[in-house]
Amino acid sequence: MSAKMIERPNLLQNNKEYRVFLQEHSILFEYKMVCIQDLKGIYVIPSAQNSFLWFGVQFVRQGIYQGGVFRFTITLPPNFPDGGCPKVVFQTNVFHPLINPDSGELYLAWNFPEWKRTNRVWSLIQFITKILTKVDSKMTPINQVAAALLETDVEKFQKLAKESVKNSLSQVYDPPPTDDPHYITFSPYDNDLHDPIKEEIYQPKEERENKTVGFSWVQPGSLQPFSKSETR
């Protein structure tokens, strides 16, 4: 048996590990791209236990669903960045033409008929905000009832959409369904904990800039290290 044949299993193992490394790098790159985008009112983070699963929450600031706080997950395909489109599933029931009323899955084929390597996850996240901010009657629906009401009885559609908003708010403080430390959770406002943070945020910019940070051993007006006399 030749030396090359003996070494082949190790080579295959190394190739597999390298592919995993490249895949993890691709996922980290996608998340970095998400972080640098100016995405309004939507927050996502990969699971601490599974980088193919991302947790997200959308705060809707305008439109029919204004005021809603909708949780969702993004699941990347096993062979990402190749393969099909990532899957978005809402954890809150959302009455919407593009959201499956039974599974909560968002019908992404309307905007991403074919997922390519050049597609970015941040654009998918941006699409989530878009469909909750402005409902387009031209969308190819997955929820036929919602689509029909949008066309024939807008008032009733808006009423059911507002019920989705109300339900989402009633679940904001629910305990997490997983022990994953990256799952996004919220707690009620605590005056002792949050008031100092709020005051810091609303502090005038000039005061924050002039605030002393740390210690200095340099005498004002001098560039010589340790020129400042020690004070006790």
Structural overview:
The chain is of the alpha+beta class. It has a single domain, classed as Ubiquitin Conjugating Enzyme (Roll), CATH 3.10.110. It is 39% helix and 10% strand. It is built from 6 helices and 4 strands. Strands 1-2-3-4 form a 4-stranded antiparallel sheet. Strand 1 and strand 2 form a beta hairpin. Helix 3 (144-152) crosses helix 4 (154-170). Mean pLDDT is 85; it is low at 1-6.
List how many beta strands DSSP finds. 4
Mean pLDDT over the full residue set: 85
| Number of separate domains | 1
> Looking across the biggest beta sheet, what order are the strands in?
1-2-3-4
Look at the structure and name the CATH superfamily: Ubiquitin Conjugating Enzyme
Stretches with pLDDT under 50, minimum 5 residues: 1-6
Derived structural class? alpha+beta
Main pleated sheet? 4 strands, antiparallel
Label the CATH architecture.
Answer: Roll
**Helix proportion of residues, in percent?**
25-40%
Just give the CATH class: Alpha Beta
Radius of gyration: 25 Å
Domain UBC core: 22-170
Organism: Cephus cinctus (Wheat stem sawfly)
Protein name: AKT-interacting protein isoform X3
Pfam families: UQ_con (PF00179)
